[in-house]
Design brief:
Layout lengths: L1 E8 L3 H10 L6 E7 L6 E3 L2 E3 L2 E10 L4 H12 L10 E7 L12
Helix pairs in contact: 1-2
Length: 106
């Protein structure tokens, strides 16, 4: 199994959830986060915003679905054809085990 964590622009969350659902990936968890990347925040009208609001999206899929999910995230979350700073990051981790609590399996 593969654990996928993506930090994305908040305004892309609904489109991403819809696109993943269209491809059969319904299960995900998300929560608001804030942080900064290479751009070290932004300045708007003379006001410096050191950290920017983002959304963390967490998805667990079988190995064979990793590419489909990652390409969907990129397709939906890039703001221009080649992307721009602040579009986000994707982290992939191998997951040894996962349990559904309601199934009471060990």
């Amino acid at each position: 199994m593969i654990e996928i964590k993506a930090i994305i622009r908040r305004e892309r969350l609904k489109a991403l959830k819809d696109a993943l659902a269209e491809r059969g990936f319904y299960g995900l968890t998300h929560w608001p986060v804030s942080g900064r990347g290479k751009q070290r925040g932004v300045t708007v009208n003379g006001v410096v915003y050191d950290e920017l609001p983002k959304e963390m999206v967490y998805i667990v899929v079988h190995d064979e679905h990793k590419t489909a999910v990652v390409t969907t995230i990129i397709a939906i979350c890039q703001t221009q054809p080649k992307g721009t700073a602040g579009d986000g990051r994707i982290f992939i981790t191998r997951l040894d085990e996962g349990y559904t609590i309601s199934e009471q399996l060990l």
